C-alpha cells in the first residue's frame, strides 16, 4: 500500500518535484474586480504600498502579490475590504477564462460557492445578462451571497438546488455552464494539508460518481452550440480525465471537446501545451484529448484540471415547467422613480441605472437588472441582486454600504472627503470631524473611492462603516 496519496502518480510525473512543490507555501494571488476598480488602479495602489506584482498567465486581471513588509495581512488591505480586489488562486481563474462569458448571455455556475468564479463571471459580463449562481449547503450559500454583494454584482440570482435538478427543469436554457465540481481537493494541499486526509479510494469513487451526474446535467442544461467548462482542484484521474471521457463516450454525437489553445486567454494559449501533454500521459486508451492538467509544480500554483466542451446537438427534450415568482416583490415604477429622484438630489449621482429595478424585501430594498427581473425561473430564488438600502421614517431610503461603494464614488453632493489620518480613525470605529456645512446622511470619499457612509451634524461625522469592516481592522490601525 502507498505511504503517500501522491505515490499513485509515479508514472505520470516526477514524485519528488510534486511533493516538494505541494509542501511549499502557496503564493498570494488576487484578481482585480473590474466592477469596482481597474488594473491600473491596482498597479498604482501596489506601487504606493511597494508590492511586487506578477501577472497570472491566463487572466489579464489576475496577479501574484509579493510584499517585503507583511506586518499588515493582505486580507486587511482597504481595497480588499471594499471589494476592489478578490483573493483567488491563479489556477482557479482558468475555468472562467476558458468559459469566456459574454455580456447579455445566460450563465450557470452550478457549484458556485464560495463565489470567486461567480464574481469573475459577472465582471466579464459587465453586469449585462443573467448569472444563476447555485449551491446546496447553507453556510456556503451565505459565503457566496456575501462575496457577490461585496463585489457589486447586480445581475445574479442565487438558487439552492442539487446540480442534477437543472437537467430536467432548465433544459437547454444556458449559453454557458461552469461546473467547478465538488472533489477530493488534492490540488489544494498547499493551503490545506488536511485535504490529503480525504482522498481514500472510496472517497474518490464517490466523488467521481457525483461528478458524472453533474456534468451530464450541465450538458443537458446548455443550449445547442453552448459551452461547458468542467474543472476540479484535485489530481485524481478518476475525477478528471475519466469523468469527461465517460460523458464524451455517452454523448459522442452531441458533444465535442474544444482545444483550449484555440481560446484566447490573455495570450497564454501556447503555454497550455505542457498541461495538455501532462493530461495525455494520464489518459488511458482514449487518445490525446485536449484536456488541461496542472500539477502544482507546472506553474507553482495549486493543482487543477480543466476540460472545455461544446454541445453540438440536443441531449434531452425540454419539458414545460411552471414559472415561480421571486420571493422579493418588485417596487412599483412610480415609487422607484421617487427614490431615484431623491438620491440624485441628495448625492448628485444616479444610483439606479436605466436598465435596473428595485425589489422589496421587508423594510429593505434590493437592486438588480431588468434582465434578472424578467428571467423565467422554475424555482423560488434563494436571493437576487444586491442590497440597495433601508427605508427610514424621515427619508425614502438610506442606501446600504455596498451600494455606496459601488455607485458613491461619482457623488458630487453631500460628500465628506477624508485624509489618511481620518481614514485610520474611521477604521478604528471612531467618529471624525467634518465640514460644519454637512448635515445628515453623507458619503465618505477617500481619494477617488467611496469607502462608505456617515451622518454629519455640527461638524462631527458619525461613523457608519459596517461593524465587520471595523472588526477586521482591530489589530491593524
Describe the structure concisely.
The chain is α+β, with helices and mostly antiparallel strands and 477 residues long. The protein has helices at residues 15-22, 39-49, 78-81, 94-99, 116-125, 138-150, 165-169, 201-221, 241-250, 273-282, 296-299, 333-347, 370-373, 401-407, 420-427, 467-472; strands at residues 29-32, 51-56, 59-67, 85-87, 106-109, 130-135, 156-160, 174-180, 222-232, 255-257, 292-294, 304-311, 329-330, 356-361, 364-369, 383-384, 386-390, 398-399, 415-417, 432-433, 440-446, 449-457, 460-463.
How are the secondary structure elements laid out?
Blueprint: H1 15-22, E1 29-32, H2 39-49, E2 51-56, E3 59-67, H3 78-81, E4 85-87, H4 94-99, E5 106-109, H5 116-125, E6 130-135, H6 138-150, E7 156-160, H7 165-169, E8 174-180, H8 201-221, E9 222-232, H9 241-250, E10 255-257, H10 273-282, E11 292-294, H11 296-299, E12 304-311, E13 329-330, H12 333-347, E14 356-361, E15 364-369, H13 370-373, E16 383-384, E17 386-390, E18 398-399, H14 401-407, E19 415-417, H15 420-427, E20 432-433, E21 440-446, E22 449-457, E23 460-463, H16 467-472
Parallel strand pairs: 5-6, 5-8, 6-7, 8-9, 19-21
Antiparallel strand pairs: 1-3, 1-4, 2-3, 7-16, 9-12, 10-12, 11-12, 13-14, 14-15, 15-17, 17-18, 20-23, 21-22, 22-23
Helix pairs in contact: 8-9
Number of helices: 16
Name the structural class: alpha+beta
Number of strands: 23
CATH class of the largest domain: Alpha Beta
Tell me the CATH topology of the largest domain: Rossmann fold
**Beta-strand proportion:** 15-25%
Q: CATH superfamily of the largest domain, please?
A: Vaccinia Virus protein VP39
Q: Helix share of residues?
A: 25-40%
How many whole angstroms does the radius of gyration measure? 24 Å
Mean pLDDT: 95
Poorly predicted regions are none
Described by strand count, sense and barrel closure, the largest sheet is: 9 strands, mixed
Distance from N terminus to C terminus (CA atoms, Å) equals: 52 Å
